[in-house]
């Protein structure tokens, strides 16, 4: 299970990279970036998985005593929460850059972004 | 074509590089020592039923404060970026609306649905961040649901003007209050962001886990108002 | 001790509440930012006072009421505190920059972003939890992303998107690395992880560690995956660039520094390689840039690469670094990082204030020209960045090179030195470009002969000349922002002074003599104060003369032998030659102080007791003399050449100092000293520097500073007696038999004689009088080198004798000529003539001078030639003797021309009202004449002390009979020679004046009946124009500038390399992403292969 999730995550990361390097429009780059980010989040979740583990929330079904061995690692879950919000923030900022770029240059094509070089 | 080949080669090399990582991990190796401690002692130490919440808000509270800060920074950036052309484009937009070819009015269906869903969504968002220490959910999730309620409103009525002073005020006050709660932890309990300056309460009840619910409420308000602000800024600009 | 949590809470609270405050009152908003940022500097200072610095104490602060692995902790130690002081200090100055600029961008949101950025970097420095570091990294990155857009141009949005994509990839790599590290070690805490380092000692562990490292490296913009970084520097507001390059990069670098204890050997090597490659390639790229901001950007990238290299090498070769100073590697990082932060930020601010974008010619009309204060600031910042003393980078560079060479890491040492040289070249190119006067084309390296009919100046469309442009310029000028670079400069200067005191004194203050090495710095400070309080220039120079005399009286009596001889040359010679400066009117800021500092640092070469002290004085001499050369009207091109060659020589010396007494040491040191002397091949800086300097200061360079190299040769003479080729080199081949037995002195001897020949020859064909004298000086130095290389008593005596007399006659000549130029307002000889009637005293000086130079009896030059030929023949160097003889023949030709063309012939119309040179210029001439006459009549007055000076080194070969010197080949009686020559001279003179008086016939100025040439340029029909045309036709092929061409070739190789590398940066965001992926995958596969 863990390996499948990890493989999926890495696959998403690679798709994200592929998109970043081949898609010719800024908006698609941002989508590729989101894919990349999602892949990373999948990897993080996958890392914390424990076979037959459940969510680390105590209730009637899960008593505090003897919970070890029955729950997945809460740390990666906590980390991924933070990572998701940060990814969201970066995406929002990227989108507003794209909006501004489009407003001032009238194009979002990657090939039109060549003013700065060398 | 050559470039494609190089890209494929580079990606293959990276994937190959990741391989040892994936091979190292398996689901059978159990919890790490740190996680074991959280699972065994977390409930006693903080009194929150949701362990992830304990980790997010308390053990790794500084991360969460930082995360709020990241969102705040992004909001500042977005409003600074998109705010510049605000007044002008907005005026133009209003003029063009009068001409008839402005933004499309939300459909009847959307308007009715939004009016119906808005209070439910708000309520749901509040529920999520209030119960963050008991059930899956928390300040961020609740805040996002809140923002989605406003997003729906904005979709349905393009002339809707949000009260910016209120948004800004809610954002600033909730943020500052979060910092203040952290400092209270430093002065009254074990350290910065220690929620235990309030009584732990009864395990599994709404009023438990010290100041964790308070923090989640503040985060919920802050995230909700920030995301609403971002969405609003983008709407005004486009 | 204030808890660091208050620091973070304060920044957070202020940032959150700022929008509300800003709404009420803009001023209150600004005040909040200033107070908060001020507190971020004050709090780390408070920590420093509370911590025990000697043991590098650290204190850990926990959060959330739990201890470390459970919760996130922060660490406050000496390292963190020091770094935060500089980082937050830089941010505070940035805020000042933005405030004073009063640009529209600087509104509430940017103030908030500044605070969030500072929050992020403080978290980066303090945090000990890997994931927490990620959060803080994102805070600072997001703040920067948003700040990039403040210029609100399409370019800045483009750059911002590039930056975000790169940053996004870096974040993804970091996250993947962190979670795997957590899974493998069971902790996110850095200290725990270091304690359990062995858990990572496998392929997966290394890979995870590498991902984190790669992420940090990408944030720090490694070559070649750094194109977006350069784009950001180019497009963003300079204030934002200053934050990127200083505040943010330094903090991320600190994270890298923090996690190095986790690294294994292979990873350290990979990191070092990446840093080193980034350093050298960025410098090459920066050299090719036209855009000032992009150039500074590449320079920043390079400097950070250097920091990475140093940290990695420091961990690899730990012991070599730790033995040098307290704090070991940390001190280095602090010095380099702090120096870079303030100097680079300062330069970015300067570029923002002047509005200078391009290094091209168009800049004149568009930018605010730097006034004296601006030039001083930019000069200091540039010197600091280039690593001149006393600034922190100088000491850091010294420690790095020392440690690397001690460890045998020659490649890294040479990469650092070459990179630094390139960096100094382009930084000073920009400095000169920013301060040069409108008449300075910046490319003057050789004499400029004006066209007969000057071309109509092409009128460029003057963008800045329109009323709107002028208004904009004035607005920009008054908008200030000066306070930020000023503060940065002040910090650098203060730190520099402190470090100089620390390193030079090393705690031993036994008497005032230990302070002597610091005198130049004290002088610079004091005279700057004089400038500020507007002490009149003449008073400043007067004080300088008195101080030099005082320095001589106090310190020189403690010396003996060769040191005393050179001490007198350096100090007494300089004091006399400062007199002409009293003639200047008006205010010349910084001139007197710089000059006195130069004199003192020259003098300090005599007192340096360690390699560091020597190198400190040597570099100080280089930079002060550079700032003197710059002052010339058209000197910027020459000054740049001078600087680059001097610095290259200095680096060669620095490297040479660590090879003991091996042939390599002799070679490297020798090259350094010969550059200073300007021997053939290394001379191409010389004519421009001597000639384009202000007329009344050329004499210092020619007659005083060139002798510094000679002095060092004397001091380290033992090195040069050895064979040039180390034993066993190319053993068994024919090459060995060919080369064996050749000592360095043989090479030096040949070099000397060839230089003497070339100097004289090149002087021959110059129309510009100062170039003639400059080449003449070069030739004279050649004789000194030749005499030195003889390694015999007579040879050394002659070398010293020449050094002393050259000081007198060349000083005299330069001062006399500067008087002529001062009066006639031209330096071209064919525009003068007949000045004997107007300037008789000057004529007399020149007459004495050229007789002394040329070596004809009866003056001092004759004695020199006599000793030289005697010594050469004694040694058996007949061929050299013949060449030297030939060279002095040529020398006589140009000297003859000098006096003939300027003083004889007919007076030009425009010079009819010329008067004798001012009194201040005549004084040194009279002193020189007196000295020459004295030593000509009584050579023993000079020779006997010189004999005593060299006595410890050689067996005596000469003897004395009264005033007569006896050698194995003959004798020399100065007095007798004088009487005989006077007789020989006076008889024909009287005959001419009395008997032949009636037969003289005046020839009109334009009477060229006998010239046998067609005058194709009316202005140049003066008989002095192209005076030696026949010789030039016969021998002209010899003075083709071979050396110049060689050096141009070297430069063009560097430029071609730079332009080829530039092609990597296509500006395409996807290519950039590809480079990041390739960079990561290549390093990763190298690393995994290594396992």
Q: Structural class from helices and strands of chain C?
A: mainly alpha
Biggest sheet architecture of chain A? none
Instruction: Estimate what percentage of residues of chain C fall within beta strands.
Output: under 5%
The greatest inter-chain interface is formed by:
B-C, 65 and 66 residues
Cα distance, first to last residue of chain C? 45 Å
Gross morphology of chain C is elongated
Residues in helices of chain A, as a percent range: 55-70%
Q: What is the CATH architecture assignment of chain A? A: Orthogonal Bundle
- Report the radius of gyration of chain A as a whole number of Å: 20 Å
CATH class of chain A: Mainly Alpha
Structural class of chain A: mainly alpha
Notable traits:
heterotrimer; A: 118 residues; Helix Hairpins; C: 1091 residues; mainly alpha; two-stranded antiparallel ribbon; 2% strand
What does this entry look like structurally?
- The complex is a heterotrimer of chains A (118), B (238) and C (1091).
- Helices cover 64% and strands 0% of the residues of chain A.
- Chain A has 3 helices and no strands.
- The longest helix of chain A has 32 residues, at 74-105.
- Chain B has 238 residues and is mainly α.
- Chain B has 9 helices and no strands.
- Chain C is built from 43 helices and 5 strands.
- In chain C, helix 1 packs antiparallel against helix 2 (26-50) and helix 28 crosses helix 29.
- Among the domains of chain C are: 266-448 and 479-507; 516-627, no CATH class.
- By secondary structure, chain C is mostly helical.
- Chain C is elongated.
- Chains in contact: A-B, A-C, B-C.
- At the B-C interface, helix 1, helix 2, helix 4 and helix 8 of B face helix 1, helix 4, helix 5, helix 6 and helix 8 of C.
């Amino acid at each position: 299970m863990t390996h499948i999730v990890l493989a999926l995550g890495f696959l998403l990361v690679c798709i994200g990279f592929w998109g970043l390097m081949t898609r010719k429009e800024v908006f698609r780059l941002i989508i590729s970036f989101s894919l990349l980010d999602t892949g990373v989040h999948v990897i993080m979740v996958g890392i914390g998985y424990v076979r037959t583990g459940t969510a680390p929330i105590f209730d009637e079904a899960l008593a505090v005593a003897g919970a070890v061995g029955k729950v997945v690692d809460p740390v990666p879950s906590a980390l991924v929460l933070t990572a998701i919000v940060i990814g969201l923030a970066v995406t929002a900022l990227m989108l507003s850059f794209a909006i501004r770029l489009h407003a001032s240059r009238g194009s979002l094509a990657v090939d039109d972004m060549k003013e700065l070089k060398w | 074509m050559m470039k494609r080949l190089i890209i494929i080669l580079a990606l293959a090399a990276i994937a190959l590089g990741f391989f040892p990582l994936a091979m190292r991990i398996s689901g059978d190796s159990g919890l790490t020592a740190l996680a074991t401690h959280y699972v065994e002692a977390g409930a006693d130490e903080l009194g929150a039923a949701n362990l992830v919440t304990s980790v997010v808000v308390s053990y790794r509270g500084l991360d969460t404060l930082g995360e709020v800060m990241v969102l705040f920074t992004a909001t500042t950036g977005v409003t600074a970026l998109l705010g510049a052309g605000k007044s002008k484009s907005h005026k133009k937009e209003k003029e063009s609306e009068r001409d008839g070819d402005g933004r499309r009015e939300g459909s009847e269906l959307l308007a009715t649905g939004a009016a119906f869903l808005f209070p439910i969504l708000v309520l749901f968002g509040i529920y999520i961040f209030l119960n963050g220490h008991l059930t899956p959910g928390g300040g961020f999730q609740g805040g996002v649901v809140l923002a989605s309620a406003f997003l729906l409103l904005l979709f349905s009525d393009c002339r809707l003007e949000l009260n910016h002073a209120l948004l800004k005020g809610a954002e600033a006050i909730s943020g500052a209050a979060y910092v203040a709660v952290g400092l209270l932890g430093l002065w009254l309990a074990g350290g910065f962001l220690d929620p235990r300056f309030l009584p732990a309460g009864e395990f599994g009840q709404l009023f438990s886990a010290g100041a964790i619910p308070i923090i989640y409420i503040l985060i919920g308000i802050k995230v909700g108002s920030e995301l609403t602000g971002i969405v609003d800024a983008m709407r005004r600009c486009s | 001790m204030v808890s660091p949590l208050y620091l973070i809470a304060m920044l957070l609270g202020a940032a959150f509440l700022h929008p509300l405050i800003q709404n009420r009152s803009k001023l209150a908003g600004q005040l909040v930012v200033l107070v908060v940022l001020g507190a971020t500097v004050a709090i780390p200072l408070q920590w420093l006072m509370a911590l025990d610095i000697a043991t590098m104490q650290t204190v850990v602060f926990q959060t959330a009421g739990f201890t470390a692995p459970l919760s996130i902790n922060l660490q406050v130690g000496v390292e963190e505190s020091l770094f935060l002081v500089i980082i937050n200090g830089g941010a505070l100055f940035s805020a000042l920059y933005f405030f004073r600029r009063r640009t529209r961008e600087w509104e509430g949101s940017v103030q908030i972003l500044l605070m969030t950025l500072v929050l992020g970097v403080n978290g980066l420095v303090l945090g000990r939890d890997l994931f927490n570091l990620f959060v803080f990294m994102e805070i600072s990155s997001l703040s920067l992303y948003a700040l990039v857009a403040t210029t609100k141009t399409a370019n800045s949005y483009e750059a911002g998107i590039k930056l975000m994509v790169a940053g996004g990839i870096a974040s993804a790599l970091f996250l993947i690395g962190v979670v795997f590290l957590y899974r493998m070690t069971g902790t996110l805490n850095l200290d725990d992880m270091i304690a359990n380092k062995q858990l990572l000692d496998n392929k997966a562990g290394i890979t995870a560690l590498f991902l984190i490292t790669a992420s940090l490296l990408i944030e720090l913009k490694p070559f070649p995956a750094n194109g977006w970084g350069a784009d950001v520097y180019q497009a963003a507001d300079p204030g934002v660039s200053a934050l990127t390059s200083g505040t943010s990069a330094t903090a991320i670098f600190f994270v890298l520094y923090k996690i190095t204890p986790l690294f294994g050997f292979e990873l350290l090597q990979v990191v070092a390689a990446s840093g080193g490659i980034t350093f050298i390639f960025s410098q090459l790229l920066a050299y090719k840039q036209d855009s000032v901001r992009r150039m500074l950007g590449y320079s920043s990238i390079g400097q950070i690469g250097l920091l990475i290299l140093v940290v990695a090498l420091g961990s690899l070769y730990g012991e070599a670094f730790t033995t040098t100073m307290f704090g070991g590697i940390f001190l280095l990082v602090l010095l380099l990082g702090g120096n870079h932060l303030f100097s680079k930020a300062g330069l970015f601010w300067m570029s923002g204030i002047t509005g200078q974008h391009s290094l091209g010619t168009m800049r004149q009309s568009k930018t605010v020209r730097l006034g004296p204060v601006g030039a001083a600031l930019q000069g200091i910042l540039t010197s600091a960045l280039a690593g001149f003393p006393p600034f922190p980078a100088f000491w850091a560079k010294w420690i790095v090179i020392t440690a690397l060479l001690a460890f045998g890491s020659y490649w890294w040492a040479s990469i650092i030195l070459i990179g630094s040289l390139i960096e100094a070249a382009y930084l000073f190119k920009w400095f000169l470009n920013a301060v040069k006067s409108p008449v300075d084309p910046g490319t003057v390296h050789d004499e400029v002969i004006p066209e007969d009919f000057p071309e109509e100046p092409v009128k460029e469309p003057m963008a800045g000349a329109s009323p709107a442009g002028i208004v904009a310029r004035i607005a920009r000028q008054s908008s200030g922002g000066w306070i930020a670079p000023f503060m940065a400069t002040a910090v650098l200067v203060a730190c520099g002074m402190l470090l100089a005191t620390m390193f030079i004194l090393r705690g031993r203050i036994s008497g005032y003599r230990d302070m002597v090495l610091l005198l130049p710095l004290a002088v610079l400070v004091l005279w700057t104060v004089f400038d500020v309080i507007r002490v009149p220039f003449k008073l400043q120079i007067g004080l300088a003369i008195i101080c030099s005399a005082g320095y001589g009286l106090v310190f020189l009596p403690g010396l003996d032998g060769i040191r005393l001889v050179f001490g007198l040359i350096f100090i007494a010679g300089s004091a006399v030659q400062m007199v002409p400066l009293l003639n200047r009117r008006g205010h010349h800021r910084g001139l007197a102080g710089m000059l006195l500092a130069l004199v003192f640092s020259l003098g300090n070469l005599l007192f340096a007791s360690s390699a560091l002290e020597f190198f400190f004085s040597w570099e100080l001499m280089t930079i002060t003399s550079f700032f003197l050369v710059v002052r010339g009207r058209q000197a910027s091109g020459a000054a740049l050449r001078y600087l680059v060659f001097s610095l290259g020589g200095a680096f060669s010396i620095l490297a040479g100092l660590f090879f003991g007494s091996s042939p390599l040491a002799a070679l490297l040191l020798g090259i350094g000293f010969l550059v200073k002397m300007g021997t053939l091949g290394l001379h191409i800086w010389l004519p421009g520097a001597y000639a384009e300097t202000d007329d009344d200061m050329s004499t210092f360079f020619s007659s005083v500073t060139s002798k510094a190299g000679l002095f060092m040769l004397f001091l380290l003479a033992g090195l040069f007696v050895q064979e040039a080729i180390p034993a066993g080199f190319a053993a068994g081949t024919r090459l060995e038999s060919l080369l064996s037995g050749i000592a360095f002195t043989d090479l030096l001897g040949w070099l000397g004689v060839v230089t003497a020949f070339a100097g004289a020859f090149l002087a021959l064909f110059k129309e510009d009088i100062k170039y003639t004298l400059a080449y003449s000086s070069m030739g004279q130095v050649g004789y000194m080198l030749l005499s030195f290389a003889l390694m015999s008593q007579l040879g050394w005596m002659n070398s010293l004798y020449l050094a002393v007399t050259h000081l007198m006659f060349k000083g005299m000549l330069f001062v006399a000529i500067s008087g002529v130029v001062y009066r006639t307002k031209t330096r071209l000889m064919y525009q003068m003539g007949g000045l004997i009637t107007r300037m008789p005293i000057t004529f007399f000086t020149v007459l004495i001078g050229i007789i002394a130079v040329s070596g004809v009896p009866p003056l001092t030059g004759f004695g020199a030639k006599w000793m030289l030929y005697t010594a050469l023949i004694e040694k058996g160097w007949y061929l050299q003797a013949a060449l030297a003889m030939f060279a002095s023949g040529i020398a006589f030709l140009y000297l003859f021309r000098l006096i003939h063309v300027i003083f004889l012939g007919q007076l030009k119309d425009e010079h009819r009202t010329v008067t004798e040179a001012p009194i201040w210029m005549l004084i040194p001439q009279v002193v020189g004449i007196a000295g020459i006459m004295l030593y000509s009549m009584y050579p023993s007055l000079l020779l006997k002390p010189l004999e005593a000076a060299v006595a410890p080194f050689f067996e005596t070969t000469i003897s004395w009979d009264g005033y007569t010197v006896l050698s194995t080949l003959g004798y020399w009686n100065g007095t007798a020679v004088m009487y005989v020559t006077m007789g020989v001279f006076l008889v024909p003179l009287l005959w001419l004046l009395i008997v032949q008086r009636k037969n003289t016939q005046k020839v009109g100025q334009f009477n060229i009946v006998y010239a046998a040439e067609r005058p194709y340029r009316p202005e140049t029909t003066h008989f002095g124009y192209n005076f030696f045309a026949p010789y030039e036709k016969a021998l002209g092929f010899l003075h083709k500038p071979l050396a110049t061409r060689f050096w141009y070739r070297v430069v063009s190789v560097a430029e071609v390399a730079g332009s080829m590398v530039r092609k990597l940066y296509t500006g395409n965001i996807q290519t950039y992403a590809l480079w990041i992926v390739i960079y990561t995958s290549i390093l990763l596969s190298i690393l995994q292969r290594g396992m």
